[in-house]
Design a protein that fits this description.
- There is one protein chain.
- The chain has 264 residues and is α+β, with helices and mostly antiparallel strands.
- It has one domain: Creatinase/methionine aminopeptidase superfamily (Creatine Amidinohydrolase, Alpha-Beta Complex), CATH 3.90.230.
- The protein contains 5 helices and 15 strands.
- The chain has a 5-stranded antiparallel beta sheet with strand order 8-7-9-14-15. Strands 1, 2, 4 and 5 form a 4-stranded antiparallel beta sheet that branches.
- β7 and β8 form a beta hairpin.
- α1 runs antiparallel to α2 and α3 runs antiparallel to α4.
- The longest helix has 24 residues.
- Bound molecules: magnesium ion.
Length: 264
C-alpha cells in the first residue's frame, strides 16, 4: 500500500521540510576543518529539539545492527552513508556527507548533502556537482503519470556521462508517518516501469554516487557503508511531494532559489 497524503498532511510535511532545511543550513555554516562529526551531531540534535521536533535517526532499528546511536549520519570520503558521528576531526581536502531526518507532529522529513571541507581536486568537485545535479534531474521526473522507473532512469542517464558508479544497494523511499515507506526509489531503472506516481505521494529521492565502483561493504560497526574499492562517494537527498502540478521539494528554506527553479 502506498499512502497518498491529503493536502493537510503535505502542509505538515512542508513545515517539517523547512525545519530540516534550517538544520542543514546551520550545519553547513559549522562545517570546517578541525570540527568533529560528534560536534555536528550535537549541533543537529540541539537544533532539532529546539524546534520541538525529534531526530528521526536516533535509535532507528534495523535487523542485524544495534539501534542507530546518533541524530545524523556523517560519512567521510569513501564512506557512502550511515557513518556514525564521533571524535573524528574533519580534515582539509576531504568530503563530508550529512544525512538526517526529523519528525514533528507525526510526520518525517529526510535530506542529505555532501560538502567539500576546504579545497578538493577537480574530479571530486565534479562528483559533488554531478550527484547534486542528478538529484534535481530525478526530482523533475517526480510527476503524476510517470513511474518510479522514470526517476531512476533519469538519474542514471544524468550520471553515466561522468563515468561514476551508482550505488544500487541503498535507494530512496516513500516517506510520511514512517521514515521509510513504500515505494522504494532506486537511482537506476527503466522508463515506464515500477509503481505509478500519483498526487499525494511523498518520496525521498537520494542518489549516492561514487568515483569508482557501485559495490559497497558495511564496516564492523554494522552501520557505516563504504565503497568496496575505497573510492569517494557523494549523497544528496530531498523529500519531495508529488502534486497535480508536478514535484514540490519540501526540504528547502523559503526564498531558496531551489523552490522556484529546482533544475539548475
Ligand atoms: Mg532517506
Amino acid at each position: 500500500m502506498i499512502h497518498l497524503k491529503a493536502p493537510w498532511e503535505i502542509a505538515a510535511m512542508r513545515g517539517n521540510g523547512r525545519r530540516l532545511a534550517e538544520v542543514a543550513f546551520r550545519l553547513k555554516e559549522a562545517i570546517a576543518p578541525g570540527i568533529t562529526t560528534g560536534d555536528l551531531d550535537r549541533l543537529a540534535e540541539e537544533t532539532i529539539r529546539g524546534m520541538g521536533a525529534q531526530p528521526s535517526f536516533l535509535n532507528y532499528a534495523v535487523p542485524g545492527a544495534p539501534p542507530y546511536p546518533a541524530s545524523i549520519c556523517a560519512s567521510i570520503n569513501e564512506e557512502v552513508v550511515h557513518g556514525i558521528p564521533g571524535d573524528r576531526r574533519l580534515e582539509e581536502g576531504s568530503i563530508l556527507s550529512i544525512d538526517m531526518g526529523l519528525v514533528y507532529g507525526g510526520y518525517h522529513a529526510d535530506m542529505a548533502f555532501t560538502v567539500a571541507v576546504g579545497e578538493v581536486d577537480d574530479r571530486v568537485l565534479e562528483l559533488l556537482d554531478a550527484t547534486r545535479e542528478s538529484l534535481y534531474v530525478g526530482v523533475s521526473r517526480a510527476r503524476p503519470g510517470l513511474r518510479v522507473g522514470d526517476i531512476g532512469h533519469a538519474i542514471q542517464g544524468s550520471i553515466q556521462p561522468h563515468g561514476f558508479g551508482i550505488i544500487r544497494q541503498y535507494v530512496g523511499h516513500g516517506i510520511g508517518r514512517q521514515l521509510h515507506e513504500r515505494p522504494s526509489i532506486p537511482n537506476y531503472g527503466k522508463p515506464d516501469t515500477g509503481d505509478l506516481l500519483k498526487p499525494g505521494m511523498c518520496i525521498a529521492i537520494e542518489p549516492m554516487i561514487t568515483l569508482g565502483t557501485w559495490k559497497t561493504r558495511v564496516l564492523r560497526d554494522r552501520w557505516t557503508v563504504v565503497t568496496a574499492d575505497g573510492s569517494w562517494a557523494a549523497h544528496f537527498e530531498h523529500t519531495v511531494a508529488i502534486t497535480e502540478q508536478g514535484p514540490e521539494i519540501l526540504t528547502v528554506l523559503d526564498g531558496d532559489p531551489e523552490v522556484a527553479d529546482p533544475i539548475r
